[in-house]
# Entry
Amino acid sequence: MLKKPKQAERTAALIREAIMAGKLHCNQRLIETELAERFGVSRTPIRAAIRELEESGWLKTEPNRGALVVNVTSKDVEELFVVRAVLESFAAGEVCTRIAEKDIELLWSINEQMDKHDPMDNDTLRLLNLRFHKQLCSLAGNTFLTQLIEQLWQKSEFFRRSVWYPPGRWRKSIEDHIEILTCLKTKDRKGVTQIIQQHITYSAGLIKEIESVY
# Structure
């Protein structure tokens, strides 16, 4: 039997995953009894999980309606990418001073997988792209920075349906990754931070002008 705090954390993670997967939609009202049955727990960890997810911006509470999944606008998405650009470019600059050859080889390998993959398979390419960026940021050696960026990646996954993937979108990502790796290999800190900012800003430019991602 899980202790209550651990059970609440696990329940919050399950609800968050359901939101990211689109199984719980924007503005959907969350019923405690339904969630308890769905996740096989009592209402106590459900209440604790809802409070946690409200504090972290995944849910909101409205009078007479209770807890709802937050509604996301294109402005929210664009703002998130701006913050990602700042943090990830800083992380890349830190990596530049400490990266080893084996680390560069691993990043090259991930990018090659993207290059060889079906360009129409957005789901797999998105995961490979995320793996590239996660691996890169983890090399900064700053746990708090990595945690902040990972929180933004989770929100990015939540927002994923608002992103338009035009023909050639992944080709540009692959080419950007090559430029990033070239800068890392030559220890060009200024160059890598600029490319990362441009790379993520470009992604923000693909956001559709919509009122909600759902």
